[in-house]
Design a protein that fits this description.
Elements lengths: L1 H15 L4 E10 L4 E11 L10 E7 L5 E3 L4 E9 L7 E12 L13 E10 L13 E9 L6 E2 L2 E2 L4 E5 L4 E4 L2 E2 L6 E7 L2 E3 L2 E2 L35 E3 L5 E4 L8 E12 L5 E16 L8 E2 L4 E5 L4 E8 L17 E5 L7 E4 L8 E6 L11 E9 L7 E11 L4 E7 L5 E7 L10 E2 L23 E2 L3 E4 L1
Parallel strand pairs: 11-20, 22-28
Antiparallel strand pairs: 1-2, 1-9, 2-6, 3-4, 3-7, 5-6, 7-8, 8-20, 10-13, 12-18, 14-19, 15-16, 17-18, 19-20, 21-23, 23-26, 24-27, 25-26, 27-28, 29-30, 30-33, 31-32
């Protein structure tokens, strides 16, 4: 009898243990109108070692209705420790669960004709270390909505990078909370929103905090970062780029911590060429603040935007710089930080290589040749990460690079002999998109430019180059 009582007591204690959830996402892989695969990713406190499928719940519903169907058969896919800082004793758990859904199953009969489905998850409580919200230990809730009428196949965008950050007070922090869509290359946009505790309940912020300023109070635009590299923009606060998910954040209060809640919207063109929203993911990213020795984070130098025509090769170098922080005398001058650089593979056909062996300010080289048909009015993006070896917390910088691919010009060119010594050249554009320009080169049979004007030259330039639609070779 004692054994039975003891076992019941232990089980009761385990069941009653609270789960602390810091971050979470729901990703959906849709293979047709009825078959779905759902992945749940949660970042938990390191004490949550007994987390299981029974520790969270998930439902599917038709968006805008109250009827919800509980999802089952949640299977653990992976469980990893996310270490932060130089000591390997501090970490969070990242756990991923998966379930498959067959909408032809009778239990989902009410959802078959629904055009906007929603899958949500409730997972434990938020951390009691949060300083930005009025409610402590609130329920952790996230969801993803997606089109299920016009879109047959889709994989919602996935997240790249850590979902939990602990940063140093008074050190600028460059992050990207954007996501990747290398499966379908759909267009993405982002909005900062309030976190939620249920499908109909948004949480409120304390005075001075807002959904778009989720960690520190907003300061007037005349107040700037105290670092020369950021003296122009943005002002102190939480700067967010809704097109690519870039954030620039300056922690100003030790212990300041809380969720950054993002709605990621996925867009795809319909048959008429108009962009339609095909999914919305409500996710959370957690940021905390610590007191650290002074340190300058690594810079990833721009420019950050480029243009290229489809079919042409674009290559450029990406330089990093980590300026050593020099403390006032008599403190000794520290050694320069070592910096590691990587990228997120956001453009799969491209190459990214470290081309210098320097550990302090490494240089990388990016190259890409977009294929014919990849022209887009919206930019392709990838993210570069630079991490130094400062302790107790490494400083990490993430910057996005944007490449706009323009349509390669198409034209019909005609040639006619004017005289025995002159030829007229005329082109008519047949492309339907954009504004095009002409660049002609006068070459010999071996495709070498003809530099000798006595042999041949364009009338417009009196040289071997021409940029006019109609010209003459003389």
């Amino acid at each position: 009898m004692k054994v039975i009582i003891t076992s019941v007591f232990i089980c009761a204690v385990i069941a009653a243990k609270a789960i602390t959830t810091f971050s979470g996402t729901i990703d959906i892989h849709k293979t047709n109108l009825t078959q779905l695969e759902v992945d749940y990713t949660f970042v938990l406190d390191k004490t949550d070692t007994v987390f299981s499928a029974d520790s969270f719940s998930s439902t599917i519903s038709c968006s805008g209705t109250s009827a919800r169907i509980m999802l089952a058969n949640l299977v653990e896919i992976s469980r990893n420790k996310l270490f932060f800082g130089c000591a390997v004793t501090e970490y969070k758990w990242e756990v991923i669960y998966r379930t498959s859904i067959d909408l032809t199953d009778a239990r989902f009969s009410t959802l078959v004709s629904c055009c906007t489905l929603q899958i949500d998850a409730t997972c434990g409580k938020r951390s009691n270390t949060i300083t930005s919200l009025t409610t402590s230990l609130s329920d952790f809730y996230i969801y993803t909505q997606f089109d299920n009428c016009t879109i047959l196949v889709n994989r919602t965008p996935t997240y790249y990078g850590e979902r939990f950050s602990k940063n140093c007070q008074d050190q600028p922090f460059y992050i990207n909370v954007g996501r990747l869509d290398t499966a379908n290359f759909d267009s993405l946009s982002y909005t900062l929103v309030a976190p939620m505790s249920s499908t109909s309940s948004s949480l409120t912020f304390k005075s001075g905090y807002y959904p778009d300023q989720p960690l520190i109070p907003y300061y007037p635009s005349s107040t700037k970062y105290p670092y020369s590299e950021s003296n122009a923009t943005p002002p102190i606060g939480f700067y967010f780029d809704s097109l690519i998910g870039d954030c620039i954040y300056m922690p100003v209060n030790t212990g300041d911590a809380g969720p950054v809640t993002i709605e990621t919207m996925e867009w795809r063109k319909d048959g008429s060429g108009k962009y339609q929203k095909i999914s919305t993911s409500h996710t959370e990213y957690f940021i905390g603040t610590s007191q650290c020795p002074r340190n300058n984070p690594p810079n990833i130098n721009g420019p950050y935007t480029y243009k290229v025509c489809e079919g042409e090769t674009l290559c450029f170098n990406i330089e990093t710089e980590d300026i050593t922080f020099i403390p006032p005398p008599p403190a000794p001058i520290p050694s320069p930080d070592s910096v590691r650089v990587s990228w997120n593979g956001g453009i799969p056909q491209a190459t990214f290589n470290i081309i210098t062996p320097r550990v302090h300010n490494p240089v990388s080289r990016f190259c890409w040749t977009p294929e014919i048909g990849q022209a887009s009015s919206l930019p392709y993006t990838f993210i570069v990460v630079a991490r130094d070896n400062s302790c107790p917390l490494n400083a990490v910088t993430r910057r996005s690079f944007r490449i706009t691919v323009n349509e390669k010009g198409k034209a019909n060119t005609t040639y006619s002999k004017d005289t025995d010594s002159t030829i007229s050249v005329s082109s008519t554009f047949i492309s339907t998109r954009g504004t095009h320009s002409i660049k002609r080169t006068l070459m010999d049979i071996d495709k070498n430019p003809i530099l000798d004007k006595s042999i041949a030259r364009f009338a417009s330039s009196s040289g071997y180059l021409s940029v006019t639609k109609d010209d003459h070779v003389i």
